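Appendix B, record 7
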Amino acid sequence: MKRSFSVLFTAIILSLVLLNGCKKEELPSLSCKMDGSTWTSLFRLITMGATDLGDGFLIVATTGASTQDGAYLSLLVRGTEAKEYDLAVALSGTTMQCGAIYFPNGISGTESKKYIGRSGKITITEVDTEKSKISGTFSFTLSTDLAGTEKVVITEGKFENLKYVKATISVTDFLETGK
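Structure tokens (predicted):
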């Protein structure tokens, strides 16, 4: 009996040491506040690759199982360094450093309303090239037209541990999404 207790006690201690040594992998997440209400993505696809003006990231997030059956948010960053990217700052000519597009009802045909970023920023806080993961923050004001008559304000945007794949990014496709 004493021996069984000793073996059991040793097994418990060994299990605790082994489990404690395992580092918990943080789950990927993307969330923000849209007009003050919490918005959390269920599905995310992150691409890192060549854009028209160099390497960058395209983050696609939706509240549904696809971009057609849930609210859809797309963020474009024209760069791969951990730093702040501003929509108002041009890389060359009239091309912005970052951008955002939002479809509140998904991109399902002509009934979809499309909000385009008019001002805002994306800050990449971490790029882990070994694990192909990025983290950062974002905020935008988006509207359906240049006058800003219908707008959505995104605050407290945050993405963490988003795993990316390498591919070619077409900025034209990003801007024409939903057409």
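Remarks on this record: Residues 2-21 form the longest helix (20 residues). The longest strand covers residues 151-166.
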